[in-house]
Amino acid sequence: MVEKNSNPPDECASAEGGAPASAPGSMRGRDPMSRRGLIQLGALSMLGWAARPRTALGAVAINTGEPPGDILVNIFLRGGADGLNLVVPYGDDDYYRNRPTLGISAPRNSRSSETDRVIPLDSFFGLNPALHSLRPLYEQKQLAVIHACGSGDQTRSHFEAMDTVERGVFRQTGPASGWLARHLESAPWTSKSPLRAVAIGEIVPASLQGAGTATAMRTLSDFRIDVPPGKTDEIARSLASLYGGDKDLLMEAGHETLRVLAALSHLDAAHTAAGNGAVYPVDELGAGLRQVALLIKSDVGLEAACLDHGSFDTHVAQAGILSGKLMSLGDSLAAFAKDLGPDQWKRTTVVVVSEFGRRVEENSGAGTDHGRAGVMFVLGGNPSLQSVGSALQGGRVNGTWPGLAPEQLEGPGDLRVTTDYRSVLAEVIRDHLKNPRVDVVFPGLAQQGMSRSKNSMMDQVRARVNATAQMLIPSVKL
Questions:
Q1: Which residue, 249, 239, 119, is CA-closest to 192?
Q2: Cα dihedral: 184, 186, 189, 190 (round 10)
Q3: What is the pTM of this model?
Q4: Which range, of 62-76, 121-135, 313-327, 343-357, averages the lowest pLDDT?
Q5: What is the CATH number of domain 70-229+268-472?
Q6: DSSP 116
Q7: What is the rounded CA–CA span in Å between residue 449 and residue 384?
Q8: Which of 35, 103, 268, 396 has the most other CB atoms within 10 Å of its CB?
Q9: CA 89 → CA 100, 114, 380, 458, distances in Å?
């Protein structure tokens, strides 16, 4: 059980801070073999560049230690995803009263085709049919659902709500750095990998702002050294020699950069087949997760990867838009797990989050307006998700269900937040990533963490219905 606590663009901006994706003139006009030129080239590599595929850098191999916990993959659903239609409370009659056209048919509703019905997770909640690829992961207890979660932000503004969640604060006040950056900076281990934290996209997201090593890349081919034709092998040997001396901070960083270059030198993301017959959707999220899988399998020191999945601001024509976005999400995550295989999946944790949910009642445009509480997913092969005593359990809907009756809603008619989203992330930081400094990552968060109740959200609903029924008819028990 989870602890109970009380229209901008959907995609990232296109402008990228820092160094450009390539430096076509970086070695021209100077002797490529001079020490000054090599140092400048090495400095570029430490800022997040890497070698072209199939170069002599593949002969360089330097061992490095691994962090004790999982690799974290954070997927942000930009625009405010409708949690009520991602994980549908089909057992709550008020859901259908508020959504006469957008409500997704219950599992046994014979008036709808089977492919248009909710995929039951229990007798109260079910997945949107577009997320059918996630059902096997749920059954294997490798997917935990957390409903009615969110922050304390009341503005219902995309910009402010995104900023709140990515900074890891409850409301607008708090640290300016990102929560993932604070995790990396406070972790009781160190890493000199230039690919310790990666954002697949044009810019580093706010969650990684403040991290000492965070790199934004559109594709793995962005991570390279641009050298004159015919000089690749020569410069590779010189770099290896330059960083072969006594160890200091610069030398260690150079060694680690060369190790990453070597690991990536044989990769060609566009032509490397996914593992285990996995097939990714041909879209931005599928391509992004495919590249993250390559980084994980290449052992380049990756600890955190961030991806965006946008266009969830469904004020009009929600059904068609949401179906396509969720199909991409479910199929991409299922392919990612299959691609990694059991061993790599066991040391990977995926978090799916959005800035807020949507209004309970549908609007006149066949859509939904900005709301409050939403839904989160935590996926992976980490054994803690499958442990009965774990606070965050796979194969169940975690949290406290507030109900959808008019008196149970908040504000203009929104699902009430009963789980502080930070408590979910705190469990991931502590139990999955093995960083005990939750107080640094989420300052001010109550340290009791998520409740370890044995009752699922559906059990709570059943108990509440039983209590109400017995008040009316003492002999009745459902």
A1: 249
A2: 60
A3: 0.81
A4: 62-76
A5: 3.40.720
A6: G
A7: 15
A8: 396
A9: 14, 18, 24, 10
